[in-house]
User: Which sequence fits this backbone?
């Protein structure tokens, strides 16, 4: 197995839909998150804002089942190919990349954001 | 225009083929790199190893023409949709993500790596 370079603790993880290859989100992993991802078959990350291990979907139910994990040439970035349960984004969009830099929305909201994490519960921020 | 949060100077940029949506690479941008990318229509980054602005393909000729720039929900990650000239990876693979974490190569090398940056010239590392 290739040992990613966890320089400064974290590596970025690009998350794509295993079927369509759409980029769903970018998050970060430390060694523990990657280990758990491999052992459980579900995506785990390290939350920089909450400063703790984070299983994607643990609150929302929007789990990411791992199909394959790729690593880049420099071995300091990961790519998770996943089957996404529900939506990846806390806004209710399927992908976090739903806007152009000019602010145009290029993809519809498919869920009420209150339905993603429960009304008033606050969002599970990455 | 959405102003990305250049927290700590740099934001990660996921680069995908505008046609196939294949993830080609991940690099980093500062404000200057993003400005030049928008003004010229060609992908610019900030090289963390060389500590300077970097136009993708300036040495290799493997330019990335910008089709669209997306931003994520948190406005701290960019996605460049590009038309890739040649290959994105210095190894001669089309994408930098050509291996699984277990070390299996899932995509062929399409160019001699010496052909990417010229024999003995050293690589233009990100």
Assistant:
């Amino acid at each position: 197995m290739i040992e990613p370079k966890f320089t400064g603790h974290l590596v970025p993880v690009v998350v794509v839909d295993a079927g369509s290859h759409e980029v769903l989100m970018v998050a970060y992993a430390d060694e523990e998150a990657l280990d758990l991802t491999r052992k459980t078959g579900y995506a785990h990350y390290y939350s920089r804002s909450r400063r703790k291990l984070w299983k994607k979907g643990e609150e929302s139910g929007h789990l990411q089942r791992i199909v394959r994990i790729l690593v880049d040439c420099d071995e300091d970035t990961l790519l998770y190919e996943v089957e996404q349960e529900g939506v990846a984004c806390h806004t209710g969009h399927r992908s976090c990349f739903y806007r152009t830099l000019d602010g145009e929305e290029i993809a519809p909201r498919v869920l009420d954001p209150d339905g993603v994490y429960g009304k008033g519960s606050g969002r599970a921020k990455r």
